[in-house]
């Protein structure tokens, strides 16, 4: 199998806690209960979550999460 | 198109006055915005006081500017555009973090983000559902018609935000009436000032009373925070109280009306309630109740599509027009509960994107679910022409919605 791997990063200094990531890819992103900022649960999510991760990246209002392939 | 020229150099007679009037369909944004969107990325417009500013209507541009730190949300900066006298009064006096830039904005917003995370909104779902079911039972007891706004759509989010803030719901007539004035584009500056002062006094007294009690609501927690002044606490609480009930209330009523006017879509939702989540996103897109634009002012010169927005010039970002842009959504003027509408800008974008959106989503999903399952015979009790739409309000919707079942 030569499936693409995704490397996900989250930058809490940019995050405004809007929760689009936790809503759209809950297996990969959460929000901490105090400040509501992004918590990365899975920096190398399995293939079946890739679509949700890409959705979350596109929906994050403050460009706080990103993905790299490979 | 010449790159130079502020909007003030365009002849007054040719310049579009905003807010413009809606056309035949009460759900569609004003036709003038669609025409502007087809013609150019950026349009000079004239506001109520004769001042001129820029209007953006395309999805990609509105999204980009909302995420661009060169545009400020600080209404105290010269050039910031206001769509009415009341808007100016409201935004320039103690408006809290919605009208501030980072880092001040982030410092205050972060004190609340924990209260509005997705998980917390989900945890509230059973409680919100119980409230909605109680309201439905009270509305339908021994009757076959009612006004959906006063008996369901408005009390539901009001009860929820009161619960979160620690505001006694018994006072709802007091704060709803005054919130209504704050959000009216027809109210004078003096009326808005009075309503704002009364609400501020009300919240301050409430916060003061809570100081000696160890309660677990947002106002009590802001009290305990220690770094906030009484004015800051009042401004933040007021922002939540007002933003937290009028918006969701209007989305609820207008969504029901839009579904009743699109019976095929309503039938699809009734047949498969699993569609409700996606339908709420589509209704947010289609209805975009924040309908007079989101305002910003440029802090640097920014070139956009051959025009230059100069530092100190305002922009009005028409999220309603952007959400009907066919570059972003195919067949944008059709309500389609099965489309993926998640890229809509109804909650804004960038660091000011709606703080309450996880809560609003749950409230809207629950409201639709409870109303559709509880009222199989739901219908409009008056001709749609007789429904009073909120043209002159900051938040679009209906003043009343007579329904029968
Ligand atoms: C359907 C319902 C709602 C809609 C359509 C809506 C829409 C919006 C929009 C467009 C903005 C961005 C304003 C800007 O960028 O200048 C915003 C901000 C905000 N909303 Fe909402 N809202 C809704 C519900 C709520 C609820 C339920 C709450 C609170 C409980 C809330 C609290 C806020 C706050 C505090 C802000 C300011 C955020 C900031 O500046 O960082 N909203 N909302
Ligand atoms: S979507 Fe972006 S801004 Fe919102 S919580 Fe996730 S990372 Fe933060």
Task: Write a structural description.
In chain A, a hairpin with a 6-residue loop joins β2 (29-31) and β3. Helices cover 21% and strands 23% of the residues of chain A. Chain A has 70 residues and is of the alpha+beta class. Chain A has helices spanning 20-24, 50-59; strands spanning 6-10, 29-31, 38-40, 65-69. The mean pLDDT of chain A is 93. Chain A has one domain: 2-Layer Sandwich (Alpha-Beta Plaits), CATH 3.30.70. Helices cover 47% and strands 9% of the residues of chain B. Chain B has 15 helices and eleven strands. In chain B, β1 (16-17), α1 and β2 form a beta-alpha-beta unit. The termini of chain B are far apart. The chains are: A alpha+beta (70), B alpha+beta (405). The structure holds protoporphyrin IX containing FE and iron/sulfur cluster. Protoporphyrin IX containing FE binds at residues 73, 97-98, 109, 161, 239-240, 243-244, 247-248, 251, 289-290, 294, 346-348, 352, 354-356, 359-360 of chain B.
Q: What sort of overall outline of chain A do the alpha carbons produce when their principal axes are compared?
A: globular
The best one-word shape of chain B is globular
Derived structural class of chain A: alpha+beta
Strand order of the largest sheet of chain B: 1-2-3-9-6-4
Q: Spans of chain A of 5+ residues with little confidence (pLDDT < 50)?
A: none
* Biggest beta sheet summary of chain A: 2 strands, antiparallel
State the helix count of chain B.
15
Q: How many domains, in number, for the residues of chain B?
A: 1
Q: Architecture of chain B, CATH level 2? A: Orthogonal Bundle
The helix count of chain A comes to 2
Give the percentage of residues in beta strands of chain B.
5-15%
Regarding quaternary structure, what we see is heterodimer
Number of separate structural domains of chain A: 1
The strand count of chain B comes to: 11
Taken in chain order, the helices and strands of chain B follow as: EHEEHEHHHEHHHHHHHHEEEEHHEE
Strand content of chain A: 15-25%
Ligand inventory reads: protoporphyrin IX containing FE, iron/sulfur cluster
Considering DSSP H and I runs of 4 or more, what fraction of the residues of chain A is helical? 10-25%
Terminal Cα separation of chain A, in Å?
14 Å
- Mean pLDDT of chain B, nearest integer? 93
């Amino acid at each position: 199998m030569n499936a693409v791997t995704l490397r996900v990063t989250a930058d809490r200094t940019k995050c405004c806690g809007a929760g689009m990531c936790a809503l759209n890819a809950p297996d990969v992103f959460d929000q901490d209960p105090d400040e509501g900022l992004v918590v990365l649960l899975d920096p190398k999510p399995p293939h079946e979550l890739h679509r949700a991760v890409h959705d979350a990246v596109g929906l994050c209002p403050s460009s706080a999460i990103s993905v790299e392939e490979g | 198109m010449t790159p130079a020229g502020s909007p003030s150099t365009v002849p007054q007679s040719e310049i579009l006055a905003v807010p413009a009037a809606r056309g035949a369909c009460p759900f569609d944004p004003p036709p003038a915005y669609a025409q502007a969107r087809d013609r150019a990325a950026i349009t000079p417009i004239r506001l109520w006081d004769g001042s001129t500013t820029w209007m953006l209507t395309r999805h990609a541009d509105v999204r980009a500017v909302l995420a661009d730190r060169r545009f400020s949300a600080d209404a105290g900066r010269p050039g910031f555009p206001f769509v009415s006298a009341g808007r100016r009064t409201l935004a320039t006096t103690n408006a809290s973090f919605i009208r501030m830039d980072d880092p001040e904005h982030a410092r205050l917003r972060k004190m609340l983000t924990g209260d509005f995370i997705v998980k917390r909104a989900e945890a509230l779902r059973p409680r919100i559902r119980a409230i909605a079911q109680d309201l439905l039972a009270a509305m339908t007891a021994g009757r076959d018609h009612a006004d959906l706004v006063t008996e369901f759509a408005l009390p539901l989010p009001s009860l929820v935000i009161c619960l979160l803030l620690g505001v006694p719901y018994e006072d709802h007539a007091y704060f709803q009436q005054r919130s209504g004035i704050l959000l009216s584009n027809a109210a004078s500056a003096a009326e808005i000032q009075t309503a704002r002062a009364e609400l501020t006094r009300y919240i301050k007294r409430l916060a003061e009373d809570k100081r000696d009690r160890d309660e677990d609501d947002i106002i009590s927690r802001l009290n305990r925070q220690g770094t906030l002044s009484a004015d800051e606490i009042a401004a933040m609480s007021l922002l939540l109280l007002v933003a937290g009930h009028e918006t969701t209330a209007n989305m609820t009523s207008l969504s029901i009306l839009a579904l009743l006017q699109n019976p095929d879509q309503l039938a699809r939702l009734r047949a498969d309630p699993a569609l409700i989540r996606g339908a709420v996103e589509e209704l947010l897109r289609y209805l975009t109740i924040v309908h007079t634009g989101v305002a910003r002012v440029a802090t640097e010169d920014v070139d956009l599509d051959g025009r230059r927005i100069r530092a100190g010039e305002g922009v009005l970002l028409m999220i309603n027009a952007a959400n009907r842009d066919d570059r972003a959504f195919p067949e944008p003027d059709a309500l389609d509960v099965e489309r993926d509408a998640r890229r809509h800008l109804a909650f804004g974008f960038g660091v000011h994107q709606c703080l309450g959106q996880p809560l609003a989503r749950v409230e809207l999903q629950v409201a639709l679910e409870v109303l559709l399952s509880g009222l199989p015979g739901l219908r409009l009790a008056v001709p749609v022409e007789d429904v009073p739409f909120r043209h002159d309000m900051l938040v679009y919707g209906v003043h009343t919605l007579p329904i029968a079942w």
